[in-house]
User: Which sequence fits this backbone?
C-alpha cells in the first residue's frame, strides 16, 4: 500500500489472532520509529520490544485501558530521556510505529504511557534506567477485528487562510 493509503486506513486494533510476529518485522517497525521527526535531532528514545507472554501479561495487568496487550504478539514500549520535547518526539515515534505495523499488515493500538500512574511500574518491570520515562506502549498483532470509529469530516476541521475560512 502507498503512504497515503496507509495513513488513511490505519485504525486502532485491540483484538489479535494468536500468532507470533517475525523478529525481522518487529525490527523494521522499530526502525521506522527511530527515524521519526525529533526536536533538534536529539532522538531521545529507547524502544523495548516485548514478546514474552508472561511479561506481556504483567504489562497488560499494570495498565488500565491496555488489558488487550496480553493477547498481542508484541508490545513496543517507547521510552524517552526527559528532554524538553520528549513527549512530542516519543509521540512522533509512536505514530511511525503504528503506521509501520499497519503497512506490514498488522494491527496496532497506542496505549497511554505518559501521565499514567503506572509509568514507573512499567519502567521497573522492564529494568529501565531512571533517566527515561514511558511515553507509550504499542500493542501489535495479527488483526482479529478492525474497528471503524467515526471521524470528523475534512470540512469540519480544515480552514483556509483563517479560522472559519
Ligand atoms: C495519547 C494516546 C493514548 C491512547 N491510549 C489508549 C489506551 O490506553 N487504550 C486504548 O485502547 N486506546 C488508546 N488510544 C487509542 C485511541 O483510543 C484511538 O486512537 C482513538 O479512539 C481513535 O481511533 P483510531 O486510532 O482507530 O483512529 C490512545 C491514543 C492516543 C493518541
Assistant:
Amino acid at each position: 500500500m502507498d503512504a497515503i493509503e496507509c495513513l488513511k486506513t490505519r485504525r486502532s486494533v485491540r483484538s489479535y489472532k494468536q500468532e507470533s510476529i517475525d523478529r525481522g518485522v518487529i525490527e523494521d517497525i522499530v526502525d521506522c520509529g527511530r527515524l521519526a521527526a525529533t526536536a533538534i535531532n536529539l532522538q531521545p528514545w529507547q524502544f523495548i520490544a516485548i514478546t514474552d507472554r508472561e511479561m506481556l501479561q504483567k504489562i497488560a495487568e499494570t495498565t488500565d485501558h491496555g488489558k488487550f496487550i496480553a493477547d498481542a504478539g508484541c508490545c513496543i514500549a517507547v521510552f524517552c530521556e526527559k528532554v524538553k520535547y520528549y513527549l512530542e518526539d516519543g509521540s512522533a515515534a509512536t505514530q511511525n510505529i503504528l503506521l509501520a505495523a499497519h503497512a506490514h499488515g498488522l494491527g496496532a493500538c497506542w496505549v497511554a504511557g505518559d501521565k499514567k500512574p503506572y509509568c514507573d511500574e512499567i519502567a521497573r518491570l522492564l529494568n529501565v534506567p531512571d533517566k527515561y520515562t514511558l511515553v507509550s506502549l504499542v500493542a501489535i498483532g495479527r488483526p482479529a477485528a478492525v474497528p471503524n470509529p467515526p471521524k470528523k469530516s475534512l470540512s469540519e476541521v480544515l480552514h483556509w487562510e483563517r479560522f472559519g475560512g
Q: What stands out?
A: Strands lie at 15-16, 45-50, 74-81, 107-112, 132-141, 143-145.
